[in-house]
Automatic annotation (TrEMBL), chain A:
Record's keyword annotation contains Nucleotide-binding: no
Annotated GO biological process: amino acid transport
Protein name, UniProt field: Glutamate/aspartate import permease protein GltK
Topological type in the membrane: Multi-pass membrane protein
Family: Belongs to the binding-protein-dependent transport system permease family. HisMQ subfamily.
Automatic annotation (TrEMBL), chain B:
Stated name of the protein: Amino acid ABC transporter ATP-binding protein (PAAT family)
ABC transporter domain: residues covered: 7-251
Gene3D superfamilies on file: P-loop containing nucleotide triphosphate hydrolases
Classification via PANTHER family: AMINO ACID IMPORT ATP-BINDING PROTEIN (PTHR43166), PHOSPHONATES IMPORT ATP-BINDING PROTEIN PHNC (PTHR43166:SF4)
A single MF term (Gene Ontology): ATP binding
Tree of life domain: Bacteria
Keyword tags: ATP-binding, Nucleotide-binding, Transport
Family, similarity comment: Belongs to the ABC transporter superfamily.
């Protein structure tokens, strides 16, 4: 830069500042806030380290067979209940938007009833169904004792799946409404039937809107399956409880269960990202973020 | 001259509540003919088009396509509504090109074209793709085969939409203001494709404001207003020497 300052033509170097060093602004407030939060976290960590937690129990039970069995049952229940929820959700949403007044009234009534009662209560209703219907079947054809069918697994699956269907149907309906009416018309003009149009043109586009909330619901369902412990379904929380009833290490085993819930939810969040990317194909906003 | 009438509309009437969108419209379109429908907005042009392929249900009147009654089956003196599957079958023979293209956004250009042939007409994928590529070449978009609609300009999207309609090998293609949503510099590329299609002998019914296209390409022109056909005839006659004062006024207003 000496050449510039030596030049007599540059008497005024007020505007020659492009070469000067930039000193970033100091964020004093941010530093103070971060320090306070870190201090609080350190305190929490210390509390846990000096608290009466036997970390060896956490370590020993993390991969205990009973816990891993419970984890598998949790995943099976999540998949079963969510499958019922999504199938019911799609069917109820299509009934709701169909022109048939009986079907759409039934759909509205379904959402009203099953979204209106707590999931835990619904689970218990199914589990105790034998109290009012000792046997089930078609009169004259066959008959089965209700208690033989209504195992904890079936009761939890029905209770969770059917109440989930009420929520999912609203997600599906909003997805269907998000598809432009021109898409329905274009599908009709190439001769598609109603079902083919829904399956090939409308639902794939609705999925883009539906996947984020349904991913949310799957993650919610992983944790909601813990309700099934109340009716003796041996999912992970139920098995952890059985162990701590025996060895009284309550918090240690609850930590073990939390670890697995967190692990499953983390894996699902990653999966959701990829599903969203798949259904976002052809859409500008998604591609821009890829 | 005996003409082979492909589309015949008789006394087609359509109401939206108290509003009469179509009032006893009669129309004949011969096989291979290009027929333009012009008129101010709200005159019922688009509604007539949408009645032909049953996107709208008419209240009175009837439409025949290749001598097949659309939407109904006659039994003696009764007209029975046909099933949804039957309606879908009737629609396959009638292509449609929309003002807003309505391409399937989750499918590439070539997937848009083969969707109907493969999943409605059950054509083998390989054959359908070969035909689709030939169609894309015809509309000048071979290199865009694997692009999604969002990656194409309006004119390119409309050309893909025309190729999609042609992919079904229909008897007739209905055009509902195909250039009205386009930027002005993109209009001609779409009109060129339509000219080429007309020259190949495709029967076309075109609702349009492009009077130049009507003059150069159409065989017949129909002027509609307030749901009625005001005047219909040979393109040169209706556009150059209209009989009705209202038609003349409209043509002058569009040109100025």
């Amino acid at each position: 830069m000496t050449a510039a300052t030596d030049s007599p033509a540059r008497a005024d170097d007020k505007y020659e500042i492009a070469h000067l060093k930039l000193v970033p602004k100091r964020h004093i407030g941010r530093m103070v806030a971060a320090a306070i939060v870190l201090l609080l976290l350190a305190g929490l960590a210390r509390a846990f380290s000096v608290g009466q937690i036997e970390w060896s129990y956490v370590r020993d039970f993390l991969f205990a067979p009973a816990i891993l069995d419970g984890l598998v049952n949790t995943l099976v229940m999540t998949a079963a209940a969510m499958s019922i929820g999504i199938v019911l959700g799609v069917v109820i949403a299509i009934m709701r938007i169909s022109g048939n007044p009986v079907l759409s009234s039934i759909a509205i009534g379904y959402v009203w009833v099953f979204r209106g009662a707590p999931a835990l209560l619904q689970l218990m209703l199914w589990f105790n169904l034998a109290l009012i219907f000792p046997t089930m079947g078609i009169p004259g054809l066959f008959e089965i004792r209700t208690v033989d069918i209504m195992t904890p697994f079936v009761a939890a699956m029905l209770g969770l799946g059917i109440s989930q269907g009420a929520y999912t149907s609203e997600v599906v309906r909003s997805g269907l409404l998000s598809v432009d009416s021109g898409q329905y018309e274009a599908a009709r003009t190439i001769g598609m039937t109603q079902m083919k149009m829904l399956r090939r043109i409308v639902l794939p586009q609705a999925m883009r809107v539906m996947v984020p909330p349904i991913g949310n619901e799957v993650i919610g369902m992983v944790k909601l399956t813990s309700l099934a412990s109340v009716i003796q379904y041996s999912e992970i929380l139920h098995n952890a409880q059985i162990i701590y009833f025996a060895n009284t290490r309550v918090l240690e085993l609850l930590l073990v269960a939390s670890f697995w819930y967190l692990a499953v939810v983390s894996v699902l969040s990653v999966g959701q990202h990829y599903i969203e990317r798949y259904f976002g194909r052809g859409s500008k906003s998604i591609r821009a973020s890829m | 001259m005996i003409k082979d009438i492909l589309i015949k509309a008789v006394d087609v009437t359509k109401n939206y509540g108290d509003f009469r969108a179509l009032d006893k419209v009669n129309m004949d379109v011969a096989r291979g003919e290009v027929s333009c429908i012009i008129g101010p907005s709200g005159s019922g042009k688009s509604t007539l088009l949408r009645c032909i392929n049953l996107l709208e249900r008419m209240d009175k009147g009837a439409i025949w396509v290749d001598d097949e009654l659309m939407g109904y089956r006659r039994e003696g003196n009764d007209l029975h509504e046909i099933s949804d599957a039957e309606i879908s079958r009737q629609r396959r023979r009638i292509g449609m090109v929309f003002q807003r293209f309505n391409l399937f956004p989750h499918k590439t250009a070539i997937e848009n074209i083969i969707e109907g042939p493969v999943h409605v007409l059950s054509e083998p994928v390989k054959e359908a793709r070969e035909r689709a590529l030939a169609l894309l070449e015809r509309v000048g978009l071979t290199e865009k085969a694997n692009h999604y609609p969002s990656e194409l300009s309006g004119g390119q999207q409309q050309r893909v939409a025309i190729a999609r309609a042609m992919g079904m090998q229909p008897d007739v293609i209905l055009f509902d203001e195909p250039t009205s949503a386009l930027d002005p510099e993109l209009v001609s590329e779409v009109l060129d494709v339509m000219k080429d299609l007309a020259a190949s002998g495709m029967t076309m019914i075109v609702v349009t404001h492009e009077l130049g296209f009507a003059r150069n390409v159409a065989n017949t022109v129909t002027f509609m207003e307030t749901g009625k056909v005001v005047e219909t005839g040979l393109a040169s006659e209706v556009l150059s020497a209209p009989k009705s004062a209202r038609t003349e006024e409209f043509i002058r207003a569009v040109h100025s």
